[in-house]
Amino acid sequence: MPRTTAALAAVCAAVLIALAAPSQASAAWKLRFTAGFNHGLNTSIWTRYNGTPRCCHETVWRPSHDVVRGGLLRLQNYRDSAYGGRWVSGGLSMGRSLNQTYGRYRIRFRISPGRGVGMCMFLWPKQGWPPEIDFAEESSAVGGRLWETSTLHYSPRNLEIHHRVHANFTNWHTIGVNWRPGRITYVLDGHAWARIWNSHVPNRPMHLGIQTHVGTNGSTGPSPDSSTPSKVGLQIDWIKIWRWT
Asked: Which CATH number describes the domain made up of 32-244?
């Protein structure tokens, strides 16, 4: 055949082969865990928080504030008469059930507005600290749910790498992180919105944690005030986790 026709045929063949073969990126991820909440909360997988954390000394976590209703996991924040009318929050982790080095994480969620109530979805090390990968975090100072922040904590001297993404998080969104050797990619609704590709990327086993809190998270953040609704909740529809192979 003519040279130009032969060249075109070769290009078409290469395209067909590329389309038929799985990409290296997709082949590297193997689904390891998926959870909806139509059948309640599996407490052999999830450890519910109970107590006051070092990070958020105004917060009280209680297992009773991790509620499954209507097929949704709900981390509830409200003044609880069982604890003297204090604001009580919810949180849970997979620390006892799934630790892995590298992974792909996706969470379908929304959160109601409320000044003084913050939230965080993150990867926490199996042992020690740092590192820590916060892939969806909102300070209690914001409350309007129009931003989520990512933070890579990579040094005990509180050295960090921050990014921020804008959306209305009172609506449903799917947020997550791809964590590979030397690479972190933050993803919102299927689109990468920030990347870290350097030697600070962790390379040790970590697990998923999800929490809400009131007041300060470390050194900043107000308590709920007169503008805060009586109940503020983080709702989760589903969670999926892949491992890197």
From this structure: 2.60.120.200
Q: Which two tokens stand for residue 90?
A: 């919810």
pLDDT digits (tens, 9 = 90+) for 114-140: 999 999 999 999 999 999 999 999 988
Torsion angle of the four alpha carbons 186, 192, 193, 194, in this order, in degrees rounded to the nearest 10: 50
- Beta partners for residue 59, in sequence order: none
Taking residue 225's Cβ as centre, other Cβ atoms within 10 Å add up to: 10
Return the domain boundaries, the chain: 32-244
Q: Which of 134, 126, 140, 201 is nearest to 162 (CA)?
A: 134
**Distance of alpha carbon 228 from alpha carbon 144, whole angstroms:** 11
Q: Kindly report whether the peptide bond that precedes residue 181 is cis, defined as omega within 30 degrees of 0.
A: no
Per-residue pLDDT of 182-214, as tens digits, reads 999 999 999 999 999 999 999 999 999 999 999
